[in-house]
Design brief:
The protein contains 18 helices and 7 strands. With about 375 residues, the chain is an alpha/beta fold. The relative contact order is 0.11. Bound molecules: 2-acetamido-2-deoxy-beta-D-glucopyranose (2 copies). GO terms for molecular function: ATP binding; ATP hydrolysis activity.
């Protein structure tokens, strides 16, 4: 704080005028970090830092600075946990890592891989977009919906799902009682608004969204729409992910049809699924499906998760072993994969549990 006062005293007039318009610490810190980074430490100025540097006149002001003050300033800045060249350290937006994770760690989901990457990439590279990003993940349990949501959180935020900028809502856990829906509405709105005020880019994940009361969805719907702001708060830099099993049956049917007709699973296209998913989502029972969210076209992308086959389960098992530092042989992987239940009865093609609880299951097979 002392450093801050010193700093403002030292600054030339045009700067301090600008300076005091920034009345929140985090605004000040982002602003000054960019400035210091570019001018004092002579770091590489990223394009996104140019804005900040252009607003500050490049006079001799900073040459008055002794090393000590710069040190104090840095300490103060970093004590806020904001010491990063992207401006806000909580946000990492590492799209390269997201792409790599989707390709390497997610098995059997070529559609989710490309749709999620494209959607997130588009959103991040286009800060002027006029609407938050809303994605709806569909599929059976164990197919990777949660896993992908976690990947998004991990690669966009330094602290992943634990980040101050990420919030996970599990419908039956956070909003269990229908009779309390009015109270939940208020809480949910408050929670979202609060986070959007605290973070320049937020992520909200709704797990088991099929169990969300329609009233709750409709309560937060304005935040997902094309409004510039709601009560003076802008929600345009928010990402909403809805995870549900709605449409799971339709997805499985398509996958099974492809298999029966001898076609490659990788040839299943969005055009084969999106329409069915959309219509099934709207027909399905329950809140999320019946909410205006679906009918109002507020979902930007429907992301189908295909049912997983034996070979995918083996890949999941291999990953789970690798995470424990074990390199299993094929026979071990087969053993793990064989222990899962496969459906439908005749074809025995898809793992009923997907890759769910594979990390726990391998305990039984560990040497
Ligand atoms: C932070 O800065 C933005 C513009 O850069 C401004 O709209 C917002 O009101 C500021 N926040 C606070 C709390 O001052
Ligand atoms: C993104 O993540 C990769 C892999 O974790 C890492 O090597 C790279 O440095 C990161 N990029 C940025 C800009 O942080």
């Amino acid at each position: 704080m002392i450093a801050l006062l010193l700093l403002s005293a030292l600054l030339a007039d045009p700067v301090s005028a600008d300076f005091f318009q920034f009345n929140s610490l985090s605004n000040v810190s982002t602003y000054y970090f960019n400035y210091i980074y570019c001018h004092v430490w002579e770091g590489d100025c990223q394009p996104n830092q140019e804005d900040a540097s252009q607003q500050v006149p490049t006079g001799g002001v900073w040459s008055w600075f002794s090393q000590d003050y710069t040190g104090m300033m840095t300490a103060w800045y970093c004590s806020l946990g904001q010491c990063c060249d992207s401006g806000d350290c909580r946000i990492t937006n590492n799209l390269t890592a997201l792409e790599r994770d989707l390709q390497m760690k997610l098995h059997g989901q070529h559609l989710a891989q490309s749709v999620v990457l494209k959607a997130v990439q588009g959103f991040i590279n286009n800060p002027e977009s006029n609407k938050p990003l809303t994605l709806s993940f569909h599929g059976w349990s164990g197919t990777g919906k949660n896993y992908v949501a976690r990947m998004v959180a991990d690669n966009l935020y330094r602290d992943g799902v634990k980040s101050e900028c990420v919030r996970l809502f599990i419908a039956p856990f956070h909003f269990p009682h229908t009779r309390l829906v009015d109270m939940y509405k208020g809480q949910l709105r408050e929670a979202i608004r609060d986070m959007v005020l605290r973070c320049p880019q937020t992520l909200f994940i709704f797990d088991e969204a099929e169990k969300l009361h329609p009233g709750l969805i409709d309560a937060i719907k304005p935040y997902m729409d094309h409004y510039d702001n709601v009560d003076g708060v802008s929600y345009r830099r928010a990402i909403f992910l809805f995870l549900s099993n709605i449409g799971g049956a339709a997805i499985n049917e398509v996958a099974l049809d492809f298999w029966h007709s001898g076609q490659n699973r990788e040839d299943i296209g969005m055009e084969d699924l999106e329409h069915r998913l959309r219509s099934e989502s709207m027909d399905a029972e329950g809140g999320f499906a019946q909410s205006e969210l679906m009918s109002g076209h507020l979902i930007d992308f429907f992301v189908p998760f295909l049912p997983l086959e034996y070979r995918h389960v083996k890949l999941c098992a291999r990953d789970a072993y690798a995470a424990r530092g074990v390199e299993p042989d094929e026979a071990t992987l087969d053993e793990v994969a064989k222990a899962m239940l496969y459906v439908p009865k005749e074809e025995k093609l898809f793992s009923a549990q997907g890759c769910k609880s594979i990390p726990q299951r391998i305990n039984f097979f560990l040497p």
